Amino acid sequence: MSPAVDVDVAVVGAGVAGLTAAHELRRAGLTVRVFEELPYVGGRMHSFRHEGYVIDEGAEQIPEQGYRATWELLARLGVTDRDVPRIGKAVGVWRAGRAHPGVAEPAALVSGAGLSPRARLDLARLLAWTAVHRTEFDSDRPERTPAGTRTVASFARRYHPDLHDYLLQPVAGCFFGWDTARSAVAPLISLMQAVGPASRWRTYHDGMDLLARRLAEHADVETGAPVHEVVDDGREVRLHGPAGTVTARAAVLAVPAPVAARLHPAAPEDEREFLTACTFTPSFKVSCLLDRPLAPASARPLYALLTPDAEDGLLSGILVDHAKHPGRAPAGKGLLTLMADPRRIPELCGADPRETAARLIRAAARYVPGLPGAVREHFVHGFTHALPEATPEALAHRPRFAARAPRRVEYAGDWLTLCPASEAAVRSGALAASRVLSRLHPSPTAAAARPAAPAPRSDRLETA
């Protein structure tokens, strides 16, 4: 490291993307410091503990397929399969007064999973079409697919209306917080292909922040350390914050695109147009700590119940956390997460949190009878920038951003591929590290002290 700077690389943001970047850079022999505004690590994969309950504030599950970079990183950190058990419960959709299990499973062609017989035929058509074009749906390059930049709603018009109303919309609305009239279908199809059936989804046994906590154990992380501006002066990068200025040979902004654009206002044009086009959807959740393990009635035990816009104007879904993993609640107790409909979040955020929570709990009693009387305590939480929204405009600007040469200021986050998934965060962190390493060279002493960084996770990752 040059004596003129404080650290080789400064990383802004201690979510999974930032911590992955720091992990890879540190393994390559560079000195790395992570700055996190919040008092904890994990970002949108943060969990907190309260009286025996483990509450996931953001991400909820991890699939056992399609997440190669994540599983490789977990193995390196010593996380075993036992630490990431299979959920083993169904995802259902509410229609005509009852829950229909089997969403996101091949058996939906037979069981229906809320789809009418005619819609099942169109689902078979959709699955056949995506199978033919499977290799063309590249999650690293979502703009290069047969679906083009069409939105979910416009793409769905070629099929029976049920496919939009009782499959694509509830999945996009609950898990992504997307408005199907605004968000592009290509990333949705790519992700659904990658993650496989819901019956094979998993969760971290001790909270969804397990990966972030493991990464942070071996990193230099400063929590409660906001950064207000990042300046590239042509020789080094300066990070300005309340505690003063930190200088670095390079920086990685592992924050949502709108935040990155604010922190780095002098970003080059080929970056700014994509940063500006990358919008995010907010999230609003109410975690209900129950005195008994209630859940929606269903022919099969449910982990999640999707409540489509066609059926509910306030909720987008209910997650049964104690069914996701028994360790999420004390023995004999229950834990439910109520997800607000994305269309109502601006209104809900402007109201009194207690009144808003009460509204969502009353609305959820339609699906979980007896819920209001079973709630012993609740927590309201959400993120202003919860999930990247893959708009056609963002897709159009992404190729130029991806083709830019490595620079002193790099970026990491799932928004780089417009894919709202922790795998995209991990891959983006590894890519940011490889781009930084293409410009910097560790000192011989530091390099000898640590193993070399691995190659990027996939040969499909874009590099300059």
From TrEMBL:
Pfam families: Amino_oxidase. Residues 442-464 are annotated as: Disordered. InterPro entries: Amino_oxidase, FAD/NAD-bd_sf, Zeta_carotene_desat/Oxidored. Residues 442-456 have a biased composition (Low complexity). One of its GO terms (molecular function) is oxidoreductase activity. Keywords: Oxidoreductase. It comes from the Bacteria. Residues 16-437 form the Amine oxidase domain. Its EC number is 1.-.-.-. It is an enzyme of class 1 (oxidoreductase). PANTHER family: PROTOPORPHYRINOGEN OXIDASE (PTHR42923). This is NAD(P)/FAD-dependent oxidoreductase.
